[in-house]
Amino acid sequence: MSGIPTPIYSTIAVLVLLFGFWAVMLMDCLKRHELEFHTEMPNPKRMWTILLIVGIPWCSIIYFATVKRKD
Question: What is the 3-state secondary structure (H, E, C) of the chain?
Fold first, then answer.
Protein backbone atom coordinates (compact mmCIF):
# COMPACT_ATOMS: atom_id res chain seq x y z
CA MET A 1 0.00 0.00 0.00
CA SER A 2 0.96 3.60 -0.07
CA GLY A 3 2.59 5.47 2.75
CA ILE A 4 -0.76 6.55 4.25
CA PRO A 5 -1.29 5.10 7.73
CA THR A 6 -4.25 2.75 8.27
CA PRO A 7 -6.06 4.95 10.85
CA ILE A 8 -6.51 7.61 8.18
CA TYR A 9 -8.45 5.12 6.02
CA SER A 10 -10.69 4.34 8.99
CA THR A 11 -11.29 8.02 9.67
CA ILE A 12 -12.14 8.67 6.03
CA ALA A 13 -14.55 5.71 5.99
CA VAL A 14 -16.35 6.98 9.11
CA LEU A 15 -16.59 10.49 7.67
CA VAL A 16 -18.03 9.19 4.39
CA LEU A 17 -20.63 7.12 6.26
CA LEU A 18 -21.54 10.09 8.46
CA PHE A 19 -21.92 12.33 5.41
CA GLY A 20 -24.13 9.72 3.73
CA PHE A 21 -26.30 9.42 6.83
CA TRP A 22 -26.61 13.22 7.00
CA ALA A 23 -27.60 13.38 3.31
CA VAL A 24 -30.27 10.69 3.75
CA MET A 25 -31.74 12.47 6.80
CA LEU A 26 -31.77 15.80 4.96
CA MET A 27 -33.56 14.24 1.98
CA ASP A 28 -36.08 12.61 4.31
CA CYS A 29 -36.74 15.96 5.97
CA LEU A 30 -37.22 17.73 2.65
CA LYS A 31 -39.61 15.06 1.33
CA ARG A 32 -41.66 14.78 4.52
CA HIS A 33 -45.01 16.58 4.76
CA GLU A 34 -45.53 19.13 7.57
CA LEU A 35 -48.05 16.89 9.35
CA GLU A 36 -45.65 13.92 9.50
CA PHE A 37 -43.31 15.59 12.00
CA HIS A 38 -45.58 14.63 14.94
CA THR A 39 -45.26 17.99 16.67
CA GLU A 40 -47.48 20.92 17.53
CA MET A 41 -44.90 23.64 16.81
CA PRO A 42 -45.28 25.86 13.75
CA ASN A 43 -43.03 25.22 10.73
CA PRO A 44 -41.27 22.04 11.91
CA LYS A 45 -40.00 21.33 8.39
CA ARG A 46 -38.23 24.68 8.18
CA MET A 47 -36.74 24.29 11.66
CA TRP A 48 -35.41 20.78 10.99
CA THR A 49 -34.03 21.76 7.59
CA ILE A 50 -32.07 24.65 9.09
CA LEU A 51 -30.86 22.48 11.97
CA LEU A 52 -29.75 19.72 9.63
CA ILE A 53 -27.81 22.12 7.43
CA VAL A 54 -26.15 23.98 10.31
CA GLY A 55 -25.70 21.18 12.83
CA ILE A 56 -23.93 18.54 10.78
CA PRO A 57 -23.77 15.63 11.92
CA TRP A 58 -25.24 15.91 15.41
CA CYS A 59 -28.63 17.15 14.31
CA SER A 60 -28.97 14.30 11.84
CA ILE A 61 -28.61 11.82 14.71
CA ILE A 62 -31.15 13.77 16.78
CA TYR A 63 -33.50 13.97 13.77
CA PHE A 64 -33.26 10.22 13.30
CA ALA A 65 -34.03 9.56 16.98
CA THR A 66 -36.94 11.99 17.28
CA VAL A 67 -38.63 12.06 13.86
CA LYS A 68 -37.55 9.21 11.59
CA ARG A 69 -37.90 6.37 14.12
CA LYS A 70 -41.55 7.28 14.77
CA ASP A 71 -42.53 6.08 11.28
Answer: CCCCCHHHHHHHHHHHHHHHHHHHHHHHHHHCCHHHHCCCCCCHHHHHHHHHHHCCCHHHHHHHHHCHHHC
